[in-house]
Amino acid sequence: MSDREPVGGFDLVVRSRRVVLPDGERPLSVAVRDGVVAALMPYDEPVTAAEQVDLGGLCLLPGLVDTHVHVNEPGRTEWEGFATATRAAAAGGVTTIVDMPLNSLPPTVDVEALEVKRAAAAGQCAVDVGFWGGAIPGNAAALRPLHEAGVYGFKCFLSPSGVEEFPPLDADGLLEAMSEVAAFDGLMVVHAEDPGLLTDPAGPTYPQFLDSRPGEAERRAVERVIGVARATGARAHILHVSSASCLEPLEAAQRDGVRITAETCPHYLTLTAEQVRGPEYKCCPPIRDGANRDELWLGLAAGVLSCVVSDHSPSTPDLKVPDFAAAWGGISSLQLGLPAVWTEARSRGYELARVVEWMSGRPAALAGLRAKGGIAVGRDADLVAFDDTARFTVEATALHHRNPVTPYHGRALTGVVRATWLRGRPVTDTVPPFGELL
Could you tell me which residue ranges the Amidohydrolase-related domain spans (predicted)? Predict the structure, then answer.
């Protein structure tokens, strides 16, 4: 340590020789006061603080931001709930989630339903939680009030959602909703599959299910959203891109100045159709082949796909029946996104800073969460100690989400979250939840 006079007055100082910033890793001391990052100082800077933690060679990351989580509470809390979902998030290094408007009852399609959801979440959340609103047929007049009540944007489907209380928008409905959203510069996030190209699976197997939801259905729907975004000037974001055929129209639209972005998910980047063993792998749109996966990585590296988020969409085990045509479609991965993506990314030569940008910085920017998404003075002190070389084998029953179902069970992954801080306070199983509703 230096003989310089110590800087003082901090609540917490976390030191690491590998603090992950957008431009790479640096040895730093991260000083926290009143829940925010107050200073970034040299690793060996003498300080006085109520608590000091030295991680040595462990990485220090900003808390991840997952803008695509189906919590399902209230109404389908046996599938998932705020207590279990947010605990899983914290264990996986995710310090902020944004909850999707469907699969809960009522769905978040008006201010009254938003208040019901906020009341259900209150006091249960181990991490900070924001909310999407929903755009369904007939609720265009409810979108501005929801925006003013604090939702981060609006989710819609172009094909059936799987739950009857959240129907899809047809062409006229999409135009109406996006015109309304454009009027207050909101954000529309879209499940993009063209229902005209979807069919009932011809049988119970995964290849038959995959054939029923071709990549062309995604591309056609993406092209429709691009056209409406171009016509209205609205901001649009394509959810969970699984088909690399979407990359070409997205790149062209972005080059033309259309306000459109897109995401993909850990399961599309790390799993392949050839690996599918059972219904725990079923999701919509589906996991495709290995060559398609390689193209998604290239689209992510090029910035056509801006972020990686979980689309955590769990259910009770009984809904994951062996028949792929009948099984519930949803992947449970909230706690595993970081190690799953990092395992694959490092094998492809990507640095940890890229992964952090895809899973923290860019999702935060998408939702306009200015206090999240990076380790910087003035931002929330959401921090994660990450052992980037530790290996483990996934055991579904050891995960914190409500039901022990995940396609990652038995899979060897690299990267272990050793500690998580939310606004400078450690999140542990023994600390009552103190996450805020954003």
Answer: 60-427
**Cβ neighbour number for residue 417 with a 10 Å cutoff:** 20
Do 240 and 343 have their domain in common? yes
Tell whether pTM > 0.90: yes
**Domain region containing 126:** 63-367
Strand partners, 89: none
**Do both 234 and 337 map to the same domain?**
yes
Peptide bond into 285 cis (omega under 30): yes
- Phi, psi dihedral angles at 165 (to 5 degrees): -80, 0
Q: Select from 161, 34, 152 the least CA-distant residue to 96.
A: 152
Considering its fold, how many domains does the chain have in total?
A: 2
Residues 92 and 54 in one domain: no
Under 8 Å between Cβ of 420 and 61: no
Closest CA to 34 of 433, 424, 431: 424
Q: What is the pLDDT along the chain (438 residues), one digit of tens a residue?
A: 445 656 778 999 999 999 999 999 999 999 999 999 999 999 999 999 999 999 999 999 999 999 999 999 999 999 999 999 999 999 999 999 999 999 999 999 999 999 999 999 999 999 999 999 999 999 999 999 999 999 999 999 999 999 999 999 999 999 999 999 999 999 999 999 999 999 999 999 999 999 999 999 999 999 999 999 999 999 999 999 999 999 999 999 999 999 999 999 999 999 999 999 999 999 999 999 999 999 999 999 999 999 999 999 999 999 999 999 999 999 999 999 999 999 999 999 999 999 999 999 999 999 999 999 999 999 999 999 999 999 999 999 999 999 999 999 999 999 999 999 999 999 999 999 999 999
Contact (Cβ atoms closer than 8 angstroms) between residue 366 and residue 306: yes
**Residue 358 · residue 318 · CB < 8 Å:** no
Helices 171-183 and 215-232: crossing angle, nearest 10°?
40
Q: Which two tokens stand for residue 242?
A: 């699984």
